[in-house]
Amino acid sequence: MFLKILMMAVFIAVTIYIGFRARKSAMDVDGFVLGGRKVGPWLSAFAYGTSYFSAVVFIGYAGQFGWKYGMAALWIGLGNAFVGSLLAWYVLGARTRAMTHHLHAQTMPEFFGARFSSRWLRIAAAAIIFVFLIPYTAGIYNGLSRLFDMAFNLPYELCVIAMAVLTCVYVVLGGYMATAINDTVQGLIMLFGIVAVIVAVLSGHGGFMQAVIALSQVPNDTPGTAGMQGAFVSLFGPDPFNLAGVFVLTSLGVWGLPQMVQKFYAIRSSNAIKRGAIISTFFALAVAGGSYFLGGFGRLAADNIAYTPAGTPVYDSVIPAMLANMPDLLIGLTVVLVLSASMSTLSSLVLTSSSTMTLDFIRGNFIKDMDVKGQLVSIRLLIVVFVLISTIIALVQYHSSVTFIAQLMSISWGVLAGAFLAPFLYGLYWKRATTASVWACFAFALALVCSNMLLGYIGSPINAGALAMLAGLAIVPLVSFITPRPDAARIDALFRESYANLHDNQIDAD
After folding, report:
1. Which pLDDT value is given to residue 286?
2. What's the CA gap between 93 and 111, in Å, rounded?
3. CA nearest neighbour of 138 among 417, 400, 420
4. For 400-453, how does the pLDDT look when each residue is reduced to its tens digit (9 = 90+)?
5. Half-sphere exposure of residue 243, counting CA atoms within 13 Å on the CB side?
6. 60-74, 75-89, 335-349, 355-369, range with greatest mean pLDDT
7. How far apart are alpha carbons 375 and 394 in whole angstroms?
8. CA separation (Å) from 491 to 101, 118, 436?
9. Which of 40, 179, 196, 490 has the fewest CB atoms below 10 angstroms from its CB?
10. Is 39 helix (H, G, I), strand (E, B) or coil?
11. Please, what is the Cα angle at 501 between 266 and 45, to 5 degrees?
12. What is the DSSP code (8-state) at residue 486?
């Protein structure tokens, strides 16, 4: 216990120290929100990767989908690496950096408002972000707190509150640069930790081949394929259709998440984007691939996990059950690993939400002449408010019927990516995209995911979110073709001036 507490104390001290050291870079709004748009490839890549993967992935998704699909869950990790990381950086990176700089856009709603000449579109996007980032944050609290309960036997409420306070401290102090530097430190911990944990868990089952043999003998209880032999070591698992839904949501979905896309706003050059893409992909392969690979062996811990009164597994307990018998040193390392992943994601979420509400909702609408000092005060206050609201929801959710982390993340990702992915992608590449098509995409994603949350007609919130994203890619061009064209002269000038120096080495943060 002393060793675990010592590791946690060192982690917390380093995190807060970095927050203090980064204060000088957070003296104006651009510095606080985007690090002055001068962030290098290593910091940007680790900021992207650690914002991508948190306790939601390591505890929630790896546990749930490893249990459901066995070793086929590794496909999700590969999708996260090559679609969610490598392809996202190459398709979105340079164009996002160039157009947002030209438009002086610091947030995704600000991009929508300037690109499609609509103040109300900007306000609507800000409201969607603020509301639907909250359930994702609550899910992160939930997953991390389960691991703390296993390692330290601490109450859920205490874990949630402590994590909320720590997040507030270093983000309020240092803004984007504090999160980016901490993300790099935390990312290195994650890389080392995931390898150590996988080796330890497989060793506990007699090594890789013995673990695979044991998994191949687990009876398959998946509806529709029950009785299929060796289902959990097969190429696509016992349920390929729902596996594909998870693949789409978690891999393509990040293209429309504001806290992920914002990393491209801040990177300093095109060369940095090229290097960052490679670094981010290797990080995703190790962390996401390792998490889902580990979760694929979850059924070997079936005797130790928690079950609901109905007899169904509590998926959030799968990974903690697999780790419970490891040596104290590895348990401490695992706690720091998941804390690292979760803190980096939380800091990104609260910074994105608070800056969006200040710059896109309050400034210019409620306070007409908001100076820089006022904006910084507002962003910092809203960081505290956002953390407080999400903490309260996490505590209420813990005692409610929504028991799985994956549900919270799926609802959040489904609305955000369903609403934003297609308009953002077409806004970067296609001059013909219209304001009406963006409204249609927003409305469809909200209606589909929220109505399905209440009525459950699709069944899986993950599939609902994946459908919203894919439908948006068709809705934007269809509605654009039947609605009036945007001002051709303005759009031509925007694309020409934004992309005139698309592959320059440096952007001046003027």
Report:
1. 93
2. 14
3. 400
4. 655 555 566 678 889 999 999 999 999 999 999 999 999 999 999 999 999 998
5. 25
6. 75-89
7. 28
8. 16, 14, 16
9. 490
10. strand
11. 30
12. P
Phi, psi of 507 (to 5 degrees): -105, 125
Domain count, the chain: 1
CATH of the domain at 305: 1.20.1730.10
Residue 476 lies in a domain: no
d(CA 26, CA 29): 7
Residue 493 maps to a domain: no
In terms of residue numbers, what domain contains 50? 2-401
SS3 364: coil
In a domain, 140, yes or no: yes
pLDDT tens digits along 270-325? 788 989 999 999 999 999 999 999 999 999 988 888 888 888 888 888 888 888 77
Percent of the chain surpassing pLDDT 70: 92
Structural tokens at position 60: 């929630």
| Of 167, 209, 130, the residue nearest 55 (C-alpha) | 167
- In a domain, residue 118? The reply is yes
Q: For residue 396, give the DSSP letter.
A: H
Tell me the torsion sign for CA atoms 320, 325, 326, 329: positive
Residue 350 has what pLDDT?
86
CA proximity to 410, closest of 338, 348, 458: 458
Integer Cα distance of 322 and 298 in angstroms: 7
